[in-house]
């Protein structure tokens, strides 16, 4: 029995040192080298904190670009997907409701042109980005409600295109583009 207990105690102590002390310390050191020292990229406009670049937010006003729906209610503490599959009737109804709502607010857009990212939530429920197509289909609505030239809005979108580091897909950070939208004259 002694020959089993002593190695188990030693292994437990080694695991405690590695997983409770060394690993968290390493991650903390890496975070200190990151922008904002691991505190996230807080966005401040006119001295007021308005959000985080890496966290999706609810924009429902017709004056703004709408982001991706959230299954977590945009609550980072409850980050999650809906866990409902594409054949789940409740999920399908939810997507249909989002499509119907989008069409009410964007009457110039045909149903088949609505990109899926505007009516389906991401896996985390906190995706801060939409596709380039997702931004472009909202141009007519925003141009009308803000009385802005469409070409000016398209130029604004093009200035805010980001490319995904993994797969080179073009995307738009909704918070960034809405801040830029508010700064248009």
Task: Describe the protein's architecture and organization.
The protein has 185 residues and is mainly alpha-helical. The protein folds into two domains: 1-39; 56-183, no CATH class. The chain is 44% helix and 10% strand. The chain contains six helices and five strands; from the N terminus they run αββαβαααββα. It is elongated and about 80 Å long.
How do you describe this structure in short?
By secondary structure, the protein is mainly alpha-helical. Helices cover 44% and strands 10% of the residues.
Structure characteristics:
two-stranded antiparallel ribbon, three-stranded antiparallel β-sheet, 185 residues, 2 domains, 10% strand, 6 helices, mainly alpha
Form type: elongated
List the secondary-structure elements in sequence, H or E.
HEEHEHHHEEH
Number of helices: 6
Strand order of the largest sheet: 3-5-4
Largest beta-sheet characterization:
3 strands, antiparallel
Number of domains: 2
Termini separation: 79 Å
Which runs of at least 5 residues are low in confidence (pLDDT < 50)? none
The proportion of strand residues reads 5-15%
Give the % helix: 40-55%
Beta strands, count: 5
Radius of gyration: 22 Å
Helix/strand/pairing category: mainly alpha
> Mean pLDDT, as a whole number?
88
């Amino acid at each position: 029995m002694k020959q089993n207990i002593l190695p188990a105690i030693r292994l437990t102590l080694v695991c405690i040192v590695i997983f409770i002390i060394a690993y968290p310390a390493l991650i903390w050191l890496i975070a200190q080298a990151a922008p904002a020292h691991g505190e996230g990229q807080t966005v401040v406009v006119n001295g007021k904190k308005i959000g985080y670049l890496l966290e999706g937010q609810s924009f429902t006003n017709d004056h703004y670009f709408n982001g991706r729906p959230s299954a977590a209610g945009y609550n980072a503490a409850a980050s999650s997907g809906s866990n409902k599959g594409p054949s789940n009737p409740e999920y399908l109804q939810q997507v249909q409701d989002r499509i119907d709502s989008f069409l009410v607010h964007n009457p110039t857009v045909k149903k088949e042109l609505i990109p899926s990212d505007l009516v389906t939530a991401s896996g985390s429920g906190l995706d801060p980005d939409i596709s380039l197509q997702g931004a472009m289909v909202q141009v007519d609505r925003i141009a009308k409600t803000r009385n802005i030239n469409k070409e000016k809005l398209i130029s604004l979108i093009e200035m805010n295109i980001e490319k995904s580091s993994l797969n080179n897909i073009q995307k738009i950070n909704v918070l960034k583009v809405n801040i830029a939208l508010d700064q248009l004259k």
